[in-house]
Design a protein that fits this description.
The chain has 448 residues and is α/β, with parallel strands linked by helices. Helices cover 29% and strands 21% of the residues. The strands form four sheets. Strands 1, 2, 3, 4, 5, 15, 16 and 17 form an eight-stranded mixed beta sheet that branches. Bound molecules: (4S)-2,6-dioxohexahydropyrimidine-4-carboxylic acid.
């Protein structure tokens, strides 16, 4: 992907890994960061492409450690081509794709296939996540060493938990040796059963089966015990409950190798969105109750959960934001709430959604950038460090964004095939202007 020279002039350069936050210019040469700061005129090569970033933020490209690109097997939902274009439009330069594909990513041949397709079709970096168990069936460990050698960056049966505690114990033991985290989708099925939204008065009023917070917390507690037993690297996928936060705090307090992610939707919208009226208290009839685009696993939860997650993210306890981008074809959402597929298309709204926390004064812009760059890199390990910084010499994966750009969410304009977002028609403040991977511009916002 490497290309010639590029000068990004006079932006607010935020590089949290180096505590760098000042107006500066960034010179890119041959796909790598060359200079950050004042760029002397005699250092600017002839024919250098120039981007004026005055009034804009320039940061390392975002790293998403949890998304679904659906290839192979579900190309009618998303492909590596469309998913990576969506990622670029969202400011992501690295996407870790989950293995609930068909076939699942449980052997080196499927990893190789994704790598080949990515070389042909991807506009941003794609890092496959391998299965924990064969076929994601939960019965026997996948060939984790083979998958590690093939280059997976994490292991997960995402979409499903690793049900069997002994298999999870073994997987965590191997993760310590391999230096690769196990990302568990924490869901105690005996508790979540046929639930479709958060348990509580809204589920009761709507007549929908609920999912209790304990379905998530029981498995988080189990996994933390197993991480302690094995010394393994546990990463908690998409945490959503206020009870998950102290569990994480306690685990980290003990010095365990446990990390966690939270999704933009769980930080910004609640189960009131299932009730309709976009979660706004209203005496009027709701026009969009049972909106299936709000159906996601784990479910949208209550206001006190959202509060706890924001606090945990702002103070650095929760390591990172991950999208859990879960694109679905329209038909799978054009059914009853009970029947609809779980998942939200998030890559293109993640920044605008998350920036609400900054605009509301809940966290600094610097911290937000940290949780979308350095945070995910820390979960994945040292090989990702160079993708999460603008340090001279590292690959030039960069996002330029306008934190004040207001835009209306129109899924018909999404690059993703997944138009399934509850944010349709809402206005977000903050949008990507340019995304650069290895020095090459892969996305430019024509409307900015
Ligand atoms: O809502 C979800 N959708 N949660 C998951 O864990 C899986 C995902 C999917 O693959 O559609």
């Amino acid at each position: 992907m490497a290309s010639g020279a590029l000068l990004i002039k006079n932006g607010r350069v935020i590089d949290p890994g180096r505590n760098f936050d000042q107006v500066a210019s960034v010179l890119v040469r041959d796909g790598r960061i060359s200079i950050v700061g004042e760029v002397p005129a005699d250092q600017i090569p002839q024919g250098c492409q120039v981007i004026d970033a005055t009034g804009l933020v320039v940061s390392p490209g975002f790293i998403d450690i949890h998304c679904h690109l659906r290839e192979p097997g579900f190309e009618y939902k998303e492909t590596i081509a469309t998913g990576t274009r969506a990622g670029a439009r969202g400011g992501f330069t690295s996407l870790c794709c989950m293995p609930n594909t068909e076939p699942p990513i449980d052997n080196a041949a499927v990893v190789d296939l994704i790598r080949r397709r990515s070389r042909e079709d991807a506009v941003v970096r794609v890092h496959p996540v391998g299965c924990v168990t064969k076929g994601r069936k939960g019965k026997a460990l996948a060939e984790m060493e083979e998958l590690a050698s093939a280059g997976v960056v994490a292991f997960s049966d995402d979409g499903d938990p690793v049900y069997d505690a002994n298999i999870m114990r073994l997987a965590l033991s191997y993760s310590a040796d391999l230096g690769i985290p196990i990302t568990n989708h924490c869901e105690e099925h005996a508790l979540s059963r046929n639930g479709v939204m958060a348990e509580g008065w809204i589920a009761t009023r709507l007549g929908l089966p609920g999912i209790p917070a304990a379905a998530e917390e029981a498995m988080i507690a189990r996994d933390i015990s197993l991480a302690e037993l094995t010394g393994g690297r546990l990463h908690l996928a998409h945490i959503t409950t206020s009870g998950a936060v102290p569990l994480l705090r306690q685990a980290k307090g003990k010095g365990l190798n446990v990390t966690a992610e939270v999704c933009p939707h769980h930080l910004t919208i609640t189960d009131k969105w299932v009730l309709g009226t976009r979660g706004i208290e209203s005496s009027g009839a709701s026009t969009n109750a049972y909106d299936t685009s709000t159906k996601v696993y784990p479910p949208l939860r209550g206001g006190s959960d959202v509060e706890a997650l924001i606090e945990g993210l702002a103070d650095g306890l929760i390591d990172c934001i991950a999208t859990d981008h879960a694109p679905h074809e329209p038909v799978s959402k054009q059914v009853t709430y009970n029947e609809a597929a779980f998942g939200i298309s998030v890559l293109e709204t993640a920044l605008g959604s998350s920036l609400q926390l900054v605009h509301a004064g809940r966290m600094t812009l610097n911290s937000l950038v940290d949780r979308m760059t350095v945070g995910p890199a820390r979960v994945l390990g040292p090989t990702f460090d160079e993708l999460a910084t603008l340090e001279p010499g590292t690959p030039a994966d960069i996002v330029v964004f306008d934190s004040d750009l207001e835009w209306e969410v129109d899924p018909s304009k999404f690059e993703s095939k997944g138009k399934n977002t509850p944010l349709r028609g809402t206005t977000l403040k903050g949008g990507v202007v340019t995304t650069i991977v290895e020095g090459k511009v892969v996305y430019t916002n024509a409307e900015s």
